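Reminder to self: tokens first, then the designed residues, so the page reads top to bottom the way the pipeline ran.
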């Protein structure tokens, strides 16, 4: 019975260690993904802002030309 208990204890210790390693990998991947999404979001809004500024400039030129 003691041998079975020892084997069982080792099994659960190894299982816990492997699960903790898996959780660590998932946490790192999640942080990386979050950072990547933040960067993508910032780049998107920067480009959107540039596009809207260019559109505003175009509209102003069209209005200016129309008034002439």
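Designed residues (68 positions):
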């Amino acid at each position: 019975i003691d041998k079975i208990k020892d084997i069982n204890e080792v099994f659960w210790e190894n299982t816990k260690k492997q699960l903790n390693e898996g959780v660590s990998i998932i946490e790192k991947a999640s942080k990386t993904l979050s950072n990547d999404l933040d960067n993508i979001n910032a780049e998107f809004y920067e480009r959107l802002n540039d596009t809207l500024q260019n559109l505003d400039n175009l509209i102003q030129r069209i209005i200016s030309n129309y008034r002439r």
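The radius of gyration is 29 Å.
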